[in-house]
Design goal:
Blueprint (H helix, E strand, L loop, with lengths): L1 E6 L20 E5 L5 E4 L4 H9 L10 E5 L5 H4 L14 E6 L7 H8 L18 E6 L3 E5 L2 E8 L7 E8 L2 E6 L7 H11 L4 E5 L4 H4 L10 H11 L4 E4 L7 H9 L8 E3 L5 E3 L3
Parallel strand pairs: 3-4, 4-5, 5-6, 10-11, 11-12, 12-13
Antiparallel strand pairs: 1-2, 1-14, 2-3, 7-8, 8-9, 9-10
Helix pairs in contact: 4-6
Length: 280
């Protein structure tokens, strides 16, 4: 699998001078599989810039196909969808997977974001313009996209939000994606461990430091120490600290990652634009 990070920031985009190294786009990770499928983890503002890149890979001519796996529908994970240029081009096909709320389907949640009250872009979920966009409301469990096996598990985020974590296995490579999670009890860690067990790369929430967390318990986010705990217990190959706090600058993120430089597991801070090759 070929991985590229298009958005690593949490909560809100942060286009500020002190956050240019690790990036200001909200969550979006591109995954290119061995069978040449374009998978996309989350649709934050990074999806706008990924979309521009996809125009150079067949999507400008209306022959592209992509699969978006949404963890949940908080704005920072879906706000790039209306501004993804390839979705406005007829002939392209997008398949969006996610789990809606208890009484609202995923497609209805996405339609609401694109209502003209909030969004200047034509609602391609209702107006039938541009690409064919198919929304699949999935339950936690296993499914496949081409040769990639996917495990989705509901993880603990905030009350009232249905939030998924994902595990992707393609050929000899594996990836776990846990951008928004909080561990209020051991059961919550077991869900994460199932997804992360033995993966080559774990992308994990590190919104708070341990000291900060003392005043923010219950807000739905983990710490860098939590991320390392899951990585260690699951025996992962590499850990990326992800979903950076919007007020954390590059220097502070660098210090957070550097604290683990001498550990048994390679730990990096997720950097917008970084690329990784998993498997052989």
């Amino acid at each position: 699998m070929q991985i590229k990070l298009w958005g690593t920031r949490g909560s809100i985009p942060t286009p500020s001078k002190g956050q240019t190294i690790y990036g200001g786009n909200t969550p979006c990770v591109a995954v290119r599989t061995s069978d040449r499928r374009q998978l996309i983890l989350d649709g934050g503002m990074g999806l706008h810039w990924l979309g521009k890149d996809l125009l150079q890979a067949g999507f400008s001519s209306g022959t592209g196909r992509a699969y978006i796996l949404l963890t949940h529908t908080h704005w920072d994970h879906i706000q790039g969808i209306p501004f993804c240029y390839p979705m406005l081009i007829s002939g392209n096909r997008f398949f969006i997977y996610g789990c809606g709320g208890p009484s609202t389907s995923m497609v209805d949640l996405l339609k609401q974001q694109m209502a003209t009250t909030y969004c200047p872009v034509p609602n391609f979920f209702e107006d039938l313009i541009g690409a064919t966009v198919q929304v699949e409301n999935i339950d936690p469990g296993q499914f496949a996209i081409g040769e990639t096996r996917i495990l989705a598990r509901q993880v603990n985020h905030v009350p009232g939000a249905v939030c998924l974590g994902y595990r992707l296995e393609n050929g000899t490579s594996s990836l776990a994606y846990l951008p928004d999670v909080e561990y209020l009890e051991e059961e919550h860690r077991q869900q994460a461990l199932e997804l992360a067990q033995g993966v080559d790369l774990l992308i994990h929430n590190a919104h708070f430091t341990t000291e900060e967390y003392k005043n923010h318990r219950g807000q739905g986010y983990a710490t860098d120490a939590d991320a390392l705990d899951i990585a260690t217990r699951a025996g992962v190959g590499r850990l990326l600290l992800f979903h950076h706090h919007p007020e954390r600058d590059d220097d502070a993120i660098e210090r957070m990652a550097a604290a683990y430089a001498d550990g048994d597991i390679p730990v990096e801070a997720a950097r917008q634009g970084a690329q990784y090759t998993l498997g052989t």
